[in-house]
Amino acid sequence: MSSYFIFQHDRLLLQKENHALPHSLNLPFLREYFLGTFNDTACYCAEIAADIKLPDNIEALPLRKAFEIFGELWFVVLAKAISIITWDKNHHYCGRCGHTTVVKSGHFERVCPQCGLSFYPRISPSIIVLIHDQDKILMSRSPHFTPGVYALIAGFIEVGESIEAAVHREVAEEVGITIKNLQYFGSQSWPFPDSLMIAFIAEYAGGELVIDKNELETAGWYRYDNLPGMPSHHLSIARKLIEHFIEEQRGSETNGMA
């Protein structure tokens, strides 16, 4: 049994009737890779040209919508699929000498035959942190967010920087406060565009909120049961961080009343 994750212009092709993967498409692929076996299914990713007309029973869905449809079970393989497609088309030419690269058989690797430089799928380590002051969470909004969506402090790790240092720096830069008791929560690959999100929980230590208007339009403290909004994607680790904190707070209140 096999499944093909086929993309067109960064959208996933699915059957209109049931949002299932197409059984077969008699269309030419620009690129194609074997991803591995997931849930006892051999999985492949492929891409077709943007100008190809789709069959009447096939539609191209935005990736975020596709992730919602496939859910937790297929999150990893879908994230891997779009990441491999993006890597392949972004490294068709060598960044050092400009020569056309070639795929190394059996590997996620493109090699320049002219200068020997290799290109692998890109992973950009990033941090995200839930900061709380007792039962309040620091929530923020960027100008490009969908109306009503709020998130946590996040950012990319800089070259030469430790993960922990990145957390403290991003917090200081975006909202001007200090934090303490940094605790690792978990990690998640997030293909928008190629992040490996490393998540933490931290306590507020001190300082007044000073918002970096180049990054955020607003930020503030909100009690866990009166949040202004949530991250847009229910599978994101940002959402899991917040839901974990809410559960802990509700449990503490229940135990306090016992």
Structural write-up:
- The protein is an alpha+beta fold and 258 residues long.
- The chain has three domains: 2-90; 91-122; 124-257, Nucleoside Triphosphate Pyrophosphohydrolase.
- The protein has helices at residues 63-70, 75-90, 163-175, 237-257, and strands at residues 2-8, 11-15, 31-38, 41-48, 58-62, 102-103, 110-111, 118-119, 124-133, 136-141, 153-156, 178-190, 195-206, 218-223.
- Strand 12 and strand 13 form a beta hairpin.
- It starts with a strand and ends with a helix.
- The model has no long low-confidence stretch (mean pLDDT 94).
Task: Reconstruct the topology from this structure.
Elements: E1 2-8, E2 11-15, E3 31-38, E4 41-48, E5 58-62, H1 63-70, H2 75-90, E6 102-103, E7 110-111, E8 118-119, E9 124-133, E10 136-141, E11 153-156, H3 163-175, E12 178-190, E13 195-206, E14 218-223, H4 237-257
Parallel strand pairs: 1-4, 9-13
Antiparallel strand pairs: 1-2, 2-5, 3-4, 6-7, 7-8, 9-10, 9-11, 10-14, 12-13
Quick rundown:
By secondary structure, the chain is of the alpha+beta class.
List the uncertain runs.
none
Number-wise, the strands total 14
Order of H and E elements: EEEEEHHEEEEEEHEEEH
Mean pLDDT, nearest integer?
Answer: 94
Main attributes of the structure:
14 strands; six-stranded mixed β-sheet; 4 helices; alpha+beta; 258 residues
